[in-house]
Design brief:
By secondary structure, this protein is mostly helical. The chain is built from seven helices and no strands.
Length: 190
């Protein structure tokens, strides 16, 4: 079975997840090729918002139509991470966010991914928490603000507040995730 046939065979939520992952490529090209200015800025913004909306849409469809799959459980959060982390790395290159904040965000994602792998190996599926979902939304709002790039005034202050709120939610969601699933760390074969 080739890639096109595999894509056709997927349910709609999984197709939306795959589309979100593919959208990262033109998004990054627009962010960096045009230095996210002029038309490139607005194309980047449209691509990012459209990709972000597929995240909300695929989850709602999957739950409504009972189309939750192992592929979706694995790939949906991975697609979110790919989209947000790619955007934040572009924003480092554009001097719109300090690298240390992005390093903390990426470190959290690696820690949670590793944690999920250990849990999965033991047959435990760990669902996303409210804190994790709130973290994702705050990071997506941050990216939107960074793409628009407010450099002064009230919206610049809002952008800075959202940046630190997203950072705090990233750390809190990590602590919450590990605490609620600490039994994974207590397994005898670790």
């Amino acid at each position: 079975m080739n890639i096109i046939d595999s894509f056709k065979a997927m349910n709609l939520p999984n197709k939306l997840t795959c589309i979100r992952m593919v959208m990262v490529i033109p998004f990054v090209i627009c962010m960096l090729a045009g230095r996210a200015e002029g038309a490139f800025k607005w194309i980047s913004l449209i691509l990012f918002v459209a990709a972000s909306l597929t995240d909300t849409l695929d989850g709602k469809i999957a739950r409504r139509d009972n189309l939750i799959t192992n592929f979706g459980k694995f790939m949906d959060p991975l697609a979110d991470k790919l989209l947000v982390v790619s955007a934040l790395i572009c924003c480092i290159d554009l001097d719109r966010i300090p690298a240390w904040i992005v390093i903390i965000i990426i470190a959290r994602e690696f820690i949670i991914s590793g944690f999920r792998l250990v849990a999965s190996d033991a047959g435990i599926v760990i669902a996303a928490s409210w804190w994790g979902k709130t973290k994702t939304v705050s990071q997506m709002i941050l990216v939107i603000l960074l793409i628009i790039n407010f450099t002064s005034g009230f919206m610049h202050v809002v952008q800075i507040i959202v940046m630190y709120a997203a950072l705090i939610l990233t750390v809190v969601s990590l602590v919450d995730y590990i605490y609620k699933n600490r039994n994974v760390l207590n397994m005898s074969d670790i």
